[in-house]
TrEMBL record:
SUPFAM superfamilies: Isochorismatase-like hydrolases. Pathway: Cofactor biosynthesis; nicotinate biosynthesis; nicotinate from nicotinamide: step 1/1. One of its GO terms (biological process) is pyridine nucleotide biosynthetic process. This is nicotinamidase. InterPro entries: Isochorismatase-like_dom, Isochorismatase-like_sf, Isochorismatase_Nicotinamidase. It is an enzyme of class 3 (hydrolase). Keywords: Hydrolase, Metal-binding, Pyridine nucleotide biosynthesis. The keyword Cytoplasm does not apply. Residues 4-189 form the Isochorismatase-like domain. Belongs to the isochorismatase family.
Length: 191
């Protein structure tokens, strides 16, 4: 059974200095970048990954997902707008040895990487299955939003799922704790 690493939304707008910054985002980008550099040279990185993929918020006009008066539950400041620097991967991820990138939320809110598609239209679940993946590690930003949604969908899709909390950043302590409890209850391993 193959194992995949899913790197969730490690984009400039979600790191310090971005329009929807999460404290610790740049550190997480750096730590994931270190892991990816070791993986790309096949150095010892702990679990052996057969594939490494990333997800990106990829908003053109996501409707009321963006708001000038966001409630930070269902609506948010403008972020990850296609064509802006904020939509790009954080530079701490360079080089980016991703086998594929899944873009989500072009015209709607999209939290889970499993809502994303490649530029050729492949969905994440199908892409992983086509490569024999049965085990998935999830990391990225934010623990209590897109990491949570991606991990829950991964488990629903039947993948053995683990969240690497040392490689995640959460928005708030209370919502992160609630997300970790929800993921644990869904059978997801929290590492």
């Amino acid at each position: 059974m193959s194992r995949a690493l899913i790197v969730v939304d490690v984009q400039n707008d979600f790191c310090e200095g971005g329009s929807l910054a999460v404290a610790g985002g740049a550190r997480v980008a750096s730590d994931i970048g270190d892991l990816l550099r070791r993986w790309s040279t096949r150095a010892d990185v702990g679990p052996a990954y057969d594939v490494v993929v990333a997800t990106k918020d990829h908003h053109v006009d996501p409707g009321d997902h963006w708001s000038l008066k966001p409630d930070f539950v269902d609506s948010w400041p403008v972020h990850c707008k296609v064509g802006t620097e904020g939509a790009g991967f954080h530079p701490n991820l360079d080089p980016q040895p991703f086998d594929e990138v899944f873009f989500k939320g072009e015209h709607e809110a999209a939290y889970s990487g499993f809502e994303g598609r490649t530029t050729s239209g492949d969905d994440l679940a199908g892409w992983l299955r086509a490569r024999g993946v049965g085990e998935v590690d999830v990391c990225g930003i934010a623990t209590d939003h897109c990491v949570r949604a991606t991990a829950l969908d991964s488990a629903r899709e039947g993948f053995d799922t683990r969240v690497l909390t040392a490689l995640c950043a959460g928005v708030a302590e209370a919502t992160t704790a609630a997300a970790l409890a929800e993921m644990t209850a869904a059978g997801i391993e929290i590492a």
